[in-house]
Structures are given as structure tokens and as C-alpha cells.
Design brief:
The protein is 21% helix and 17% strand. The chain is α+β, with helices and mostly antiparallel strands. The strands form two sheets. Strands 1-2 form a two-stranded antiparallel ribbon. The two termini are 16 Å apart.
């Protein structure tokens, strides 16, 4: 189930890319997955999730997010 903060405010698409540790665990052994997740700030008490929104960093303006489904700006 997606958290409210992971839903696009325009199209309600689920932007939750999954628990970082769980995603890494599917691709590598446990110790390496845990070490990799911690680089992102994940911990047992702070289970951070990946976000599917696309980050755009223009040369001269502030960065912003785009929903990969409806293409609207700042979906969260």
C-alpha cells in the first residue's frame, strides 16, 4: 500500500518505489543490501522508500519533480 506522500496529487498514481532495503535485498546478499540502504539514510527505525517521481535539475532554475505517469510538475 502506498503512503499518502507517495501519491501524485494530480493523477493519484502510486509513486512509491518500495522500501530501499527490500529493493536492494532482491538484488544482492543481505549485508551488502543493508550497507547500500544505509547510504540512502535507511535504518530499522527510518525505513525510507524510493520515489518514482523524476527529478529535473535545470541549469539556471531550481530543481523540481515530474510525475512519470501524467507528466505534471511537483506531484507530491
Amino acid at each position: 500500500m502506498a503512503y499518502a506522500s507517495y501519491a501524485c496529487k494530480f493523477c493519484s498514481a502510486n509513486l512509491d518505489g518500495g522500501d530501499i532495503f527490500e529493493v536492494f535485498l532482491k538484488k544482492m546478499e543481505r549485508e551488502k543490501a543493508l550497507k547500500s540502504a544505509k547510504v540512502y539514510g535507511w535504518s530499522e527505525t527510518n525505513k525510507i522508500h524510493f520515489n518514482k517521481a523524476i527529478i529535473v535539475q535545470p541549469d539556471r532554475d531550481e530543481q523540481y519533480l515530474i510525475c512519470p505517469y501524467c507528466k505534471n510538475k511537483d506531484p507530491l
